[in-house]
Amino acid sequence: MSARLLILFWLAVGYGCRPQNSTPAKTxxxxxxxxxxxxxxxxxxxxRILPSDEGVVVITRNGVFPYHNGAWRSDSLRVPVEQAVYxxxxxxxxxxSKSLFTKDNxxxxxxxxxxxxxxxxxxxxxxxxxxxTTDGLYWMADTWQPIHPLKGRGVHAxxxxxxxxxxxxxxxxxxxxxxxxxxxxxxxxxxxxNERYYHSLALNTAGDALYYGAPHSIGVIRQNGQHEAWSGAxxxxxxxxxxxxxxxxxxxxxxTEGVIQKDTAWHYYWGKRWLPGNRVTDICEIAPGTIWVAxxxxxxxxxxxxxxxxxxxxxxxxxxxKRHNRRGIINVSKLxxxxxxxxxxxxxxxxxxxxxxxxxxxxxYRYAATGSEEAKQRAIRTFEALERLETVTxxxxxxxxxxxxxxxxxxxxxxxxxxxxxxxxxxxxVWLDDTSSDEIAGHFFTLSLFHDLVADAGQKKRIVGLIDRxxxxxxxNNYHLVDLDGKPTRWGVWNPDSLxxxxxxxxxxxxxxxxxxxxxxxxxxxxGNLKYETVYQKLVQEHGYAVxxxxxxxxxxxxxxxxxxxxxxxPYYGLFQFSDGDPNRRLYEQSxxxxxxxxxxxxxxxxxxxxxxxxxxxCDLEAARQELMDYPLDQxxxxxxxxxxxxxxxxxxxxxxxxxxxxKPIPSAQSSVSRWNTNPKRLDSGNGGKTEExxxxxxxxxxxxxxxxxxD
Length: 712
Prior knowledge:
Strands 2, 3, 4, 5 and 6 form a five-stranded antiparallel β-sheet that branches. Strands 1-29-28-27 form a four-stranded antiparallel β-sheet. The protein is of the alpha+beta class. The protein is built from 15 helices and 39 strands. It is elongated and about 100 Å long. Helix 5 (437-453) packs antiparallel against helix 6 (457-476), helix 6 (457-476) crosses helix 8 and helix 13 packs parallel to helix 15 (696-707). The relative contact order is 0.09. The longest helix is centred in the middle third of the chain and has 20 residues, at 457-476. Residues 657-689 are annotated as: Disordered.
């Protein structure tokens, strides 16, 4: 069925009707992370994490530190360590530059005959001890004896399979000892692309599949002949694999730039969202579904928790209540100490009005979908904050960007366009001027939602009055927002002379035309004042605004501004909700379809849901669900780097800020949490853990999708 027929059907059954979803909520595995606090004496550089009968044993350069039942045991051993390994009997051996010794020091093996650094000690199934070094492989008889075929080769890893075949990864080939014969497989079988160099080895539990790490790939040699190899072209995020561990059906890979998990897909964990350091030295499962990753800066825990999307939404709602409510304003918080949520505080931001509107929309949809009294009260509280943005200015119909109590300290805007603080008429508040179209787009969309989904009779009257005042202000000031100084604000411009004839407004021509038409239709609907229809018709008939609106979203070959996406999609609500019977509706349908196709590749669930709701067709809703599941619980805006990735195809064109970007969006778990108005394809993002986002991005998409029956 065409989009046009779907829309006509939707109008016939009633725009406000939403599908009912009675299916049980689906669960998924949510990834979580935390940093494990090591004992102060352990230092940070972790060498190994070894399982034990009573938990795990963590080996650092400073010694041995047992961990049991969530606590560090007191029987640690303080001694310099370079290597750690279990022998076949389960005895723990440690080494320094001089000797290999048991933890109780009852057995000591001299290492003075080994002139080169040891990379691994290994006991085979016959209890034979080997020492891998940077210049060959040795075995212990009464003294250390070299294995001559491997002399002069850097030996990196040894394993023994179920057939007792010994496999050795070296700087000069993958070697195999089978029936006492040594074979360099790079002389017979291995791909030239491996460059005869192997960093790591791992065996599956059955011992019949050998995994290896080569310079540009990983591969597996299976006894049944079903061999495989993966490079960046196959999804491998990075390498070489310095550490490999088979944990159940999953392959975990440690690199110098984070850790990789391979199950039915590839998962990449980099940066302080996931790890204390990126140079991975070991990987160990400490409980089902809980992995400890050893790094040069400590231990990171990566676990999974069974959740529903609604439970995830509750997580974000909770953090907003704890750290993101400033006198009704909902926005990002700052962290006085990087990454430390205990030092969270809020400051005014230039677009407090817009971002607060987004939270209001989420709570409106939540209340409509669930009837939650909590959602209703939070929606009322947030509506009153938006209402206050207008009353504090003393200018009818002119909402401020932000406000604060007169006794609060405020920061000056860092914008290149000057913004000033002013006292409210009663002297109780101060407010930030130079209001933009951002705030108006947010107000009109979310005030409409609050009116229809939450408000009582008294609140509805206040909403209608506020919408009327804002629209009157804009119309009577020749389609401008006019500030306290009597001059138009920098971005509050919808005037035909500007949009249709001024070169500096070429980019906003379609966008701002779309906005003002939506605002006029909204004002007409709620107030019934026909003056808004007269103005609407004038802009359409005399100035071509409906035709302009078709090209609201700008994209290549023109500059792509992701910050304008929210300003594009919010106005579609008013146009589709309140333009029944309008002959220009087909143009608005063209506009939305065009805008949707422009952002479709970004995989931003907010736009998928809005396009689906307004067009009444499924616009990649499964992709939206997947993104919501993948979106990280941790909202600290850590620096996330991806420029080094093997699996991401680079766009030869940089983005509008001159930054490198990929051809496809970076998964949200591997990128910045700031997603509303940022480029999801940018390779490197984040601000170093200096702020915490609100999670409103998730809440808006989820609760709107829940309201329309797309999510459970």
